[in-house]
Design goal:
single chain, alpha+beta, two-stranded antiparallel ribbon, Cardiolipin synthetase, PLipase_D/transphosphatidylase, catalytic activity
Length: 59
């Protein structure tokens, strides 16, 4: 998820009952998320924009 080109988050963000052990489906679950800032956030923004077809192929 790119916020504004300055901050971005990536990783697994599983928000559902089965991941919170409210309904025991997967049992214990560990997930990791990463916050990116600065140039790394900008790079992720460009990558996501390209993948979504919002940038020309030769950016």
């Amino acid at each position: 998820m790119v916020i504004d080109g300055k901050v971005a988050f990536t990783g697994g963000i599983n928000l559902a009952d089965e991941y919170m052990n409210i309904v025991e489906r997967f049992g214990y679950w560990k997930d990791t998320g990463v916050m990116l800032k600065g140039d790394d956030s900008k790079k992720l923004h460009v990558f996501c924009s390209y993948r979504c077809g919002m940038l020309p192929k030769r950016y």
